[in-house]
Amino acid sequence: MLDSCKLKSACNLPLIYNKKINTSGTSNADVPLADPGMYQLDITLRKGQSLAARDRGGTSDPYVKFKVGGKEVFRSKIIHKNLNPVWEEKACILVDHLREPLYVKVFDYDFGLQDDFMGSAFLDLTQLELNRPTDVTLPLKDPHYPDHDLGIILLSVTLTPKEGEHRDVTMLMRKSWKRSSKTQSLRLSDVHRKSHLWRGIVSITLIEGRDLKAMDSNGLSDPYVKFRLGHQKYKSKIMPKTLNPQWREQFDFHLYEERGGIIDITAWDKDAGKRDDFIGRCQVDLSVLSREQTHKLELQLEEGEGHLVLLVTLTASATVSISDLSVNSLEDQKEREEIFKRYSPLRIFHNLKDVGFLQVKVIRAEGLMAADVTGKSDPFCVVELNNDRLLTHTVYKNLNPEWNKVFTFNIKDIHSVLEVTVYDEDRDRSADFLGKVAIPLLSIQNGEQKAYVLKNKQLTGPTKGVIYLEIDVIFNAVKASLRTLIPKEQKYIEEENRLSKQLLLRNFIRTKRCVMVLINAAYYVNSCFDWDSPPRSLAAFVLFLFVVWNFELYMIPLVLLLLLTWNYFLIISGKDNRQRDTVVEDMLEDEEEEDDKDDKDSEKKGFINKIYAIQEVCISVQNILDEAASLGERIKNTFNWTVPFLSWLAIVALCVFTVVLYFIPLRYIVLVWGINKFTKKLRCPYAIDNNELLDFLSRVPSDVQVVQYQELKPDPSHSPCKRKKNNLG
């Protein structure tokens, strides 16, 4: 071995090894090796340069894995949003012999999904000199696309022979994640568990900005703020034409690390039709903030001008856990009683944010789609409740996997929707989508094991396979009702809005349908004035005289109350007047067109390029149409008893309003309302304004959501494979 080292020394190898070191993965068999011993390989992972972009924003969140002999021996930290990351991390690895090369793989981190492959390289250890630090440059390649330039990784390595007795001291080799046994699959589950169980919650309230930098020609800006904590992101609303914006928005991040972490904050000026202008940045180091206490922070913006004012509170972790099927909370009678006691009617005002408890048993799936060329899949399951996101382990080479895992969640809003998605784990590639179900918490039957037919990504039609779940929901109805009147929690992992011709047309049709209801009502009233039907006009005239002569303000909520009651009796008598067939057909037609989008890809790109300059305007119109249509559909669905809990809540509220308006003069009500409005800023300077009626309506599903949440019935005669194209992700 020493002779071979002398031979290499005489060869005068350059410090950059991408020309001399064998990067194809084959070891140098021409160099004679001595009897295998133990070698210590000290590696410093320096940095990457010109790495491949894997995220939609043109960046990546890269990290690096080192493997020797098929075993992972090191994993670096994640550098977010950077194609030229600097790690400067050190690893000390023991290798048995030098015939096995060091396998370097780079991935882009994607929260909850399979990380994207960014390239790999081999370092031939037989080409290294002993006891001499060497700088190495490794060009990254993708075996499937060998011509693609994926950037380089820079390392500093030192190879040292070691004695046998020092193995335990220097060994940092991690356990192998092989895919051949159940125990090794459970190791992957442990890693997921460590990565996705949080230790606390960071509540952030964005209050205001002061003296921000003017970015527009009018001397003002249209500022908004982006927050990032690890993989978690939040974007505030845009405040037009101001340098002193008042946001007053509240959101939560999960805290995964004991020491806290760093929140990156950037302020931007919105520019329609072109790239947004950067206003400034700042950071919040959570490790220096005390817990269970609200901190008011005034942060100076770096690389810009002005301040941001925040309220930050660190609290203990919510009830979130993963366990095996044999160990779960509700099976233990004592724990079950404690949970029921926690959400009993007597504890209404104890922690209003703790509305309820959710337990999800992910048992198994059957008849999944084959995503691999072998005719099998490597399925794992992602369980989501708002921003809470947990994973099962992967079951390899199986179309009928059994997970037998129990997930528990803390319910903040009883109107949340549980989403269970099945993916196929793909080695070096993004996870393939296999199917998904969305289950509103209020529709769950406790303790019932059900087979849910998996749906496609849009939740509009079936895909192959069923998943067996058993779900229990325990909640306090009064807390749930009170939480209905505050703003809904935003989901900060949602995909950005994109322009879609089909979606734009569908939203236009939905809005038109709502507007036509008003137009038809106006025509009906006008026909009464025109005496098109004398009996109807006479009845309307008598009703008009009676109502106007006897009108009192309390009659407005009373009429709405009567309408709700009338619809309720229609439904229980079997005369359900709710029509959703046209909506279902529209959504399925959209899906068919989306299935054909690959065939028309070039045509679509040409269309998008033509309207790129007005793309943001079109997206705004698309979103406005969606909001207008959704508002009308939510009002209709409230009176149609689509969600009985919300309709009963509306009945209680309307009864209260009717009684109040009947017994209390209007001037007193207006006086109380005005005093509250004028003094609110003095009493609660940082209170977040909200509209209770709109918050209530935001919990009522629109017609599109009703279709998405609708449970499909298993149909053995229906084969999803006969569809034009299967939705594989």
UniProtKB/TrEMBL annotation:
This protein's record includes keyword Metal-binding: yes
Cell compartments where the protein resides: Cytoplasmic vesicle, Secretory vesicle, Synaptic vesicle membrane; Endoplasmic reticulum membrane; Recycling endosome
GO molecular function list: calcium ion binding
Pfam families documented for this protein: C2, PRT_C
PROSITE patterns recorded: C2
CDD domains linked to this entry: C2A_MCTP_PRT, C2B_MCTP_PRT, C2C_MCTP_PRT
Residue span(s) of domain C2: 20-138, 182-299, 333-454
Keywords from the named record: Calcium, Cytoplasmic vesicle, Endoplasmic reticulum, Endosome, Membrane, Metal-binding, Repeat, Synapse, Transmembrane, Transmembrane helix
Transmembrane segments: 538-571, 645-673
InterPro entries linked: C2_dom, C2_domain_sf, MCTP_C
Membrane topology: Multi-pass membrane protein
GO cellular component terms, A-Z: endoplasmic reticulum membrane; recycling endosome; synaptic vesicle membrane
GO terms classed as biological process: regulation of neurotransmitter secretion
Family stated for the protein in its record: Belongs to the MCTP family.
Name listed for the protein in its UniProt record: Multiple C2 and transmembrane domain-containing protein 1
Lineage, highest ranks first: Eukaryota, Metazoa, Chordata, Craniata, Vertebrata
